[in-house]
Structures are given as C-alpha cells and as structure tokens.
Design a protein that fits this description.
The chain is of the alpha+beta class. The chain has three domains: about 1-155 and about 360-440, no CATH class; about 175-350, no CATH class; about 445-525, Immunoglobulins (Immunoglobulin-like, Sandwich). It has helices at about 120-125, 225-245, 260-275, 325-330, 340-350, 350-365, 370-385, 390-395, 415-435; strands at about 15, 20-25, 35-40, 50, 60-65, 80-85, 105-110, 135-145, 145-155, 185, 200, 215-220, 285-290, 300, 450-455, 460-465, 475-480, 485, 490-495, 495-500, 505-515, 520-525.
Length: about 525
C-alpha cells in the first residue's frame, strides 16, 4: 500500500465550495473516543464564493470528532466522523448545508479515488431510485489552520425520519408489536461504531468457507439494545435464513418474499453491480426491518462505501467493466475473510426474481440510469471541482502514482474523469447484455392503466393501480429535469393509495410506480 507524505502547503483563502473549519485546540484526533472540538462552516449560497475570513454562517459550534473507516485510516489524508453538540456536550440536531437536521455526519477523504467522485456519484444515483441514500455535499476542509483538501460531507446511516425511516426503539420496547422493529443490521468488518457485537449465521456463505457470516447490531446501538431485542432480531433472521435455505424458498406466499421487500432487494443489487462494488453484499452492507404494524419487511440498504467501485480496485473481481460481483467474488476470492453470504445466490436462482431484476434494470436505463443523465452528473461534479481539485492534489500529490488499490492510474484529473466515464459506458453496455430480457408491452404499463385523482392537484392525490398488491408499491417522483423528490404513500391497501404532494413546488412531475415486475408511469401537474 503506497502513501505519499510529501504534501505541499497550500495558500487557501477562498473556494466555490463550502469551507469547513475545525479546531481541536491542541488535541489529537483518534479512532475512539471522540474529542470535543470547535467547528464552523462558511457557505454564502449557491454560486457564491466562500472566503476563509468570512463569518461561519452555516454552523458555528461544538462537535465530537474521531477518525472513521478501516483501511482508509492508514492513508495520510484521514476520514472523520463527527457529531454536532451543544455547549453541554449533548447531541445537537442541526441542518448542515441544506441537509435535514441530525447530529451524526461523516467527512470522506476520497484519498485513493483520484476522480474524487465515486462515493458522491454512487449516493446520488442510489438516491434517485432507492427509498433512502445518504445525502452528500462537497466541501474543503481546514483542520487546525492547515488546509486538508476536498472532502465529502455525508449523512451517517442512522434511524431518523429523514434517513432510515423506521420506528424508534426504546429500552422498554421488549414485547408486542414494539419489539418487532425497527432494527438496522450490518455486515461489515468488526471495526468502528457498534462493532464486535452481534451473532453468527447458522449457515456458511458456501461449503468450505472459512467462517460463518457475522451480523452486527447497528440500531438500536450496542449500548442501548436490550436482551429481548437481541433475541428477537436474531431469531427473526434465523427464521428468514431457514426459509431462504429451504427448497420452497421461491414460494410467493410463504417463501422469502414474505419477509424481504423485493423492490429494495432489486435496487440494492443494481446499484452494487452498476458500480461493480467489490465490497458489495459482504462489507458495508446494511438492511433494516420495519415494525410488523408498518409492514414488517426487511429492506436492503442504505448502500454505503463506493470508493473502490467504478473500476478502482486491482484485486479479486478487478477493475475491468465485465463480471458480476454477486456471482464472481466467492469464486475468485474464496479465502477472503469476508465473502458473500449464501442469500444472494439463492435470490438469483429464483427465475421470477431475476426476471424482475432485469426488467427493473431496463426501466432504470431508460430513465435515471441513462448514460446521458449519468454523464451529466459526472460533468456537474467535475465542473464543481474544477479549481478545488488543483488545491487537493497540490496538498496530496498522488496524481499519476499508484495508491492502493488503483486499477487505473491517470496522469491528470481530466484523465481520471474521462476514464471513469469510459468505464461506466462499458459497464452499462455489459449489464445491458447480461440483463437483457424481452419485455412485452404488458410489462411496461402505459399511463392509461394508472388513475391519479385529482390531477392537477394542490395537495392529496389518490392513486389507483390496475391490480391488487400484497405490499405497498414502490414509487418514485421526478421533475422535468430528472431530479428525484421525496414521495411516499401515506395510506392505502390492495390497489388504492394516497400521497401528500403539498411540499412540491408547482410544476409537472412524473410518478413511476413498480408492483412486482410491472411498472406504471403517469404525469402529474402540481398547482
């Protein structure tokens, strides 16, 4: 693993990006525990220049800060996790750079990703299709009066109405419906928060695997989860695994679909395969369980950690645009300490599910994942970083040099960005071939089959789907520029649902609703 400590000094006075200034008052930042520091954010608005000498107008207060990540901590440019605090040291929910109020955040260093955008791009793409993906903001960091480069401010995965929207669990929730959710579980290395606390699966990932898969508690946290809650979620996952391992797991009534939300499962696979994420399914993998009264399903996600995605890895599945991580990883790296669990192969062995996945991919390729829209996002980010990237690579002179585990080494930032675009175009072409399926007109439903009333509308809409569904359908709302907007069904059953769109600005929107393998699309005019 190569690192470069011959960093240059940068005369940093202003930026088109928000500026984060942290002062630890002489303390060193360690992996744990968090230390109390002062933090300010300077942001004068979109399109405005931010100066280091300006007033700290977006945030100015205390934070608890620590190092975060695993391998990434070994790089000279460090990643950080922090929580905003009040003057008494208690967590303080605040809105940073327009993101919803919360107290827990991460600062991603993007050291071994010389495009500076793999994580940001992945979260933006995931946020356009999934129920939730972490929001991101690019910024430049000054730590203890030293310029530290371009960073990505990211929402930490957490239970919250604006993040993973599941029921809050209290220590008294030890029986009845309250005991059934919500929970967040992760598959990851046993480092970082809530680490080394969980349970082993009763099933090996595959015959001959070095060890059984280890599930870790993420929410409730290790400090707060009760014995009754531990027992419940362990037993629930054991039961789900028994079903997946059974010969009858494809049964549409009593098989895995009874316990797992297949729409979230499809999108989770698609995001990890679009990025060819070598950590997908085995590390940085989260899923959450709703309370039974709210559906009770396990949903896959949120997605996390893509700095090695988009071809930025020279081991195991490699950085070429071909191959499926979900199928190949255990074959090429069977002795890795973290391999892919047996669930995933079983899902793809279900023809109905795999056909649905292919149809979902083809639908997204015509919409959110068209090459034109992805390239537009890349161009937007690279334009945003046009000047900041120069300062970043002056501070950290890694351009043109190998930093573990680079597959491609460009001589300039433009070469890195152009290669990323080339890689994505070839990756999409590969997936189009592998996930090709002949879609009948009845699969991609016309707008005539979907009823929305009233339309135009100013607040509540009623949506009628031409078929009854056993679970609330997945819906996405985009404006005429392709931007995703929050949209949830607030009530409904079988084939009639309601949604509140009063929060939207006036204009034309497109609602896309998926039920199983069928997709319905309709235009809605918001007054």
């Amino acid at each position: 693993m190569a690192s470069f400590c011959g960093m240059a000094q940068v005369n940093f006075t202003s930026s088109n990006l928000p500026i984060i200034i942290i002062n630890t008052n002489g303390q060193s930042i360690s992996d744990e525990p968090k230390i109390t520091a002062d933090m300010g954010i300077i942001y004068n608005g979109q399109g405005e220049i931010n100066k280091v000498s300006d007033q700290k107008n977006n945030y100015n207060g205390k934070v608890g800060i620590e190092l975060r990540g695993s391998t990434s901590q070994s790089f000279p440019k460090k990643p950080y996790g922090f929580e905003t605090r009040d003057n008494t040291g208690e967590d303080l929910d605040v809105s940073l750079l327009g993101m919803p109020k919360e107290s827990d955040w991460t600062l991603n260093a993007t050291y071994n990703d010389k495009s500076l955008m793999r994580d940001g791009l992945a979260y933006i793409l995931a946020g356009s299709v999934m129920e939730y993906a972490p929001r991101v903001r690019y910024c430049e960091l000054v730590l203890n009066n030293s310029y530290m480069g371009v960073y990505l401010l990211i929402e930490k995965i957490k239970r919250d109405k604006n993040r993973v929207n599941i029921s809050k669990m209290e220590v008294a929730d030890n029986s009845g419906d309250a005991l059934t959710g919500g929970y967040i579980i992760k598959l990851d290395k046993t480092t970082g928060s809530n680490s080394r606390s969980g349970w082993f699966s009763r099933y090996k990932p595959f015959t001959g695997a070095l060890s059984n898969t280890y599930f870790q508690y993420e929410y409730p946290s290790v400090d707060n989860i009760t014995d009754a809650q531990k027992n419940y979620i362990q037993n629930h996952i054991h039961n789900v695994e028994d079903v997946i391992a059974s010969n009858d797991y494809k049964n549409t009534s009593n098989g895995y679909r009874k316990y797992i939300d297949v729409n979230s499962l499809m999108d989770f696979i698609i995001i990890n395969e679009l990025t060819k994420n070598p950590d997908g399914y085995r590390l940085s993998t989260f899923f959450y369980k709703e309370r039974d009264s709210e559906g009770g399903k396990i949903k896959l996600g949120p997605v996390w950690d893509f700095n090695l995605g988009f071809g930025n890895v020279d081991y195991c599945t490699q950085g070429n645009p071909e191959g499926l991580v979900i199928q190949d990883f255990n074959t090429v790296c069977p002795n890795d300490g973290w391999v892919i669990h047996f669930w995933w192969k079983k899902f793809l062995d279900d023809p109905d599910f795999y056909d649905g996945l292919k149809k979902r991919w083809q639908h997204l390729r015509k919409n959110q994942f068209s090459l034109e829209k992805i390239n537009y996002k890349i161009d937007s980010i690279s334009s945003l970083l046009a000047v900041p990237h120069i300062r970043n690579f002056t501070k950290w002179p890694v351009m043109g040099k190998y930093v573990w585990p680079n597959y491609y080494i460009g001589k300039s930032y433009n070469e890195e960005v152009n290669w990323l675009k080339w890689w994505i175009a070839n990756r999409i072409n590969y997936l189009d071939n592998v996930w090709y399926i002949n879609i009948n007109d009845t699969d991609e439903q016309s707008s005539d089959n979907l009823t929305i009333y009233p339309n135009p509308t100013s607040a509540i809409i009623s949506v009628t789907i031409p078929e009854e569904t056993s679970e609330t359908p997945k819906a996405h709302l985009t404006d005429c520029l392709g931007r995703i907007h929050p949209f949830y069904f607030t009530a409904g059953n079988q084939n009639n649902y309601e949604a509140d769109v009063s929060h939207l600005s006036p204009g034309l929107y497109i609602i896309s609703i998926q039920t199983g393998t069928k997709i319905y699309v309709k235009k809605v005019l918001k007054l």
